[in-house]
Amino acid sequence: MARIYSKRQAPHLAPPLVLILIYAGLIVLGCAALKLPFATTTPITWSDAAFTATSAVTVTGLAVVDTGSAFTLFGQAVVMLLIQLGGLGLMTFAVLILSMFGLPVGFTHRLYLREDLNQTSATDLLALTRMILKVVFICEFVGAALLASVFVPEAGWGEGLWQALFHSVSAFNNAGFALFPDSLSKWVGNPIINLTIPALYILGGLGFTVASDIWRVRRWHRFSLHTKLMLVGTIALLIWSALAFGIMEWTNPGTLGSLSWSDRLWASWFQGATTRTAGFNTVEIGNLTDGTSLMFMTLMVIGAGSTSTGGGIKVTTFIVLLLATVAFFRQRSSIQVFGRELGLDQVMKVLALSIISVLLILCALFALLLCHEGDFLDLAFETTSAFGTVGLSRGITGDFDGAGRAIIMAVMFVGRVGPLTLGFLLATRRPRRIGYPAGTVYLG
Amino acid sequence: MARIYSKRQAPHLAPPLVLILIYAGLIVLGCAALKLPFATTTPITWSDAAFTATSAVTVTGLAVVDTGSAFTLFGQAVVMLLIQLGGLGLMTFAVLILSMFGLPVGFTHRLYLREDLNQTSATDLLALTRMILKVVFICEFVGAALLASVFVPEAGWGEGLWQALFHSVSAFNNAGFALFPDSLSKWVGNPIINLTIPALYILGGLGFTVASDIWRVRRWHRFSLHTKLMLVGTIALLIWSALAFGIMEWTNPGTLGSLSWSDRLWASWFQGATTRTAGFNTVEIGNLTDGTSLMFMTLMVIGAGSTSTGGGIKVTTFIVLLLATVAFFRQRSSIQVFGRELGLDQVMKVLALSIISVLLILCALFALLLCHEGDFLDLAFETTSAFGTVGLSRGITGDFDGAGRAIIMAVMFVGRVGPLTLGFLLATRRPRRIGYPAGTVYLG
Ligand SMILES: [K+]
Ligand SMILES: [K+]
């Protein structure tokens, strides 16, 4: 009975399936568009086109061809469009799903809707979508204007404006695609690049719920718990990653060692900020020490925020993991933070999401190791980068053959649509129906 | 008030502190004994002695000197004694703590004691301890007798009996110390070695609660939930690891490739079984493919059973992690298994234990990478091996300098006493006193 009833309530395709179909469809279309003769300067293979389309739609940024030289203006525009649709699409989808299920999205009180999908009026959703689009386009326009002040003097009006627009869209959507073979290394010490690009990807990575909460409320003590956790977590992670990167790479001749003092500081900030999901770089990632690479892998798994353009298990998930551990040591059976309490059901969600993520990364790495010769650390780094839709690489993306590419493409896809699909499952959890006697197992 | 009351109830040193002090004391004594002039054939450094003592007391088996040739009979006897005390001590301690806190240890109904420490009579605990000792010594004696049938014909009565006793004790306690530089590779195809040694370490690794439950109850449907999970989990992991090892290494000339068909099967069984915590090997671990090495690392983290001589996060913890994930996908908010229900509090314990373990491994590996040059995979493998008190190595244990050794020693120590200390914290969890309003964070 219960099943029939819930079926009647939602007779449409399940939203996660819609999401997966949309993303798969975008990739197919993007692949076809990139394979058009006038999209590339020299012909690329279907495999190249499929990989680039997947990387763009999942806003990852791993590349098997050089975006700036292999694609014509049309090809680059296709990549930019795929990035915009892939990044914006997921953000919008996430916000719409949250609002459908009555979770506060922080935009307007009208959108605190109940669980029944039918109560969400199309007008409300349309208004919300329009709001998201407006915010995104304003951010990208301002970003492009600022970037143009660097690119236009160097490349002229036409080329410079295009570069500014492309990198602004790529940055806000945390895509990490750049038009230069060494990403943004040329501007390692340029203040405008070092402030504008990170501002765009950090903003995009905070997520729409946080951005709108900040915009609407503007006072710390009235922020939602989610916003507070995201802000504290993001700032802490930025400080930690920039500091650790700077200290560990300071004298490494392959990265910071060859730069001036001020460039080293800029590069530490940029690399520290880019790692969780943005994927741009201003130093050569393949030259990182093994210790920094390990730290980067942990940051790539953590990722950015919910309802954002970023990937990973999400900052809030990471914080709840830490809080649960602290609560455990303080011998509490619940998590208290900022005067709110997180129930055990949230812990269970976090646990499931983390386990699935770890299993996914391990299985993918295992498969890669079986079918591809290569350094263990390089492959582990690449897999983690694909999972977190980060796009940083130690330089082996081009080496993959068919099977290796297929694995990385699958990880990028699951890394992008997986967490939201799980998030949907969380929101539709059924209450248990049968109780069993409690059991105990010894775990220590 | 509540704190004063609980202090009155338990005026002794906290059991975890006792455990830590005992283990630290054993290591110091062992180090001093191994440094005695007549303990070694050629003088060893204090660092060598400390590392060996730590490895023996924590039943890990990582070695910086060759146990068989560097130590005299006295020195080897010290190592064996440290193994016995380290393995047996923790098992006994764990069982005693469980029984003190009224958790069923499956041995006798008299021992279902309440939470108050004072209600546990010394007689009960003594009887339990005597029972444990009896079981352990019978197992080790039978094991030694079987092993003697191999070693005595090869090495004569004196040497052969000693080797049989040493390896029986080392195997039952999951220590992995062998008297031969290539562990047990010489007997890669010997059925007695391939059955006796694994039988000892699997039995030791199941844990006392499981062994006594099997001994006492003898019927599947009356086994405790813990016993059922341990048996199913252990068998599944044995099958998986032996199969995967065999398939992946079958044609690797450095491991199985150079062996006969029957030896390959024996070696697959032995390596599959040894990896979770025992630490013996019959093929060269340094020659494993990267894929197998990754699989081995996951097995080393999983480890053996609670109240056992083995390490790791424990098989039951791993199973609860998987069950929580499955429950999540089935949209249940509790875990049902074998007609019992595991509450969310158990999930929280599992989460805390897993997070702490992962953080420990990552921090140790990070520290190792900073202070020691070496291959990333080798160092990751070594760290995981130390955490799981496994003792398998890709051959770099001897390369570590002071800092590297100190890190590995610390990881072995925490890997051994950490989980039980946490287990104690689990058992003494306080109920929360203040409720906060519920908060929500978005995790997907
Ligand atoms: K990216
Ligand atoms: K061991």
From TrEMBL, chains A, B:
<keyword id="KW-0812">Transmembrane</keyword>
<keyword id="KW-1003">Cell membrane</keyword>
<feature type="transmembrane region" description="Helical">
    <location>
        <begin position="350"/>
        <end position="370"/>
    </location>
</feature>
<keyword id="KW-0813">Transport</keyword>
<feature type="transmembrane region" description="Helical">
    <location>
        <begin position="296"/>
        <end position="329"/>
    </location>
</feature>
<dbReference type="InterPro" id="IPR004772">
    <property type="entry name" value="TrkH"/>
</dbReference>
<feature type="transmembrane region" description="Helical">
    <location>
        <begin position="131"/>
        <end position="152"/>
    </location>
</feature>
<keyword id="KW-0472">Membrane</keyword>
<dbReference type="InterPro" id="IPR003445">
    <property type="entry name" value="Cat_transpt"/>
</dbReference>
<protein>
    <submittedName>
        <fullName>Ktr system potassium transporter B</fullName>
    </submittedName>
</protein>
<feature type="transmembrane region" description="Helical">
    <location>
        <begin position="77"/>
        <end position="103"/>
    </location>
</feature>
<feature type="transmembrane region" description="Helical">
    <location>
        <begin position="406"/>
        <end position="427"/>
    </location>
</feature>
<keyword id="KW-0630">Potassium</keyword>
<feature type="transmembrane region" description="Helical">
    <location>
        <begin position="192"/>
        <end position="217"/>
    </location>
</feature>
<keyword id="KW-0406">Ion transport</keyword>
<keyword id="KW-0633">Potassium transport</keyword>
<dbReference type="Pfam" id="PF02386">
    <property type="entry name" value="TrkH"/>
</dbReference>
<feature type="transmembrane region" description="Helical">
    <location>
        <begin position="12"/>
        <end position="38"/>
    </location>
</feature>
<keyword id="KW-1133">Transmembrane helix</keyword>
<feature type="transmembrane region" description="Helical">
    <location>
        <begin position="229"/>
        <end position="248"/>
    </location>
</feature>
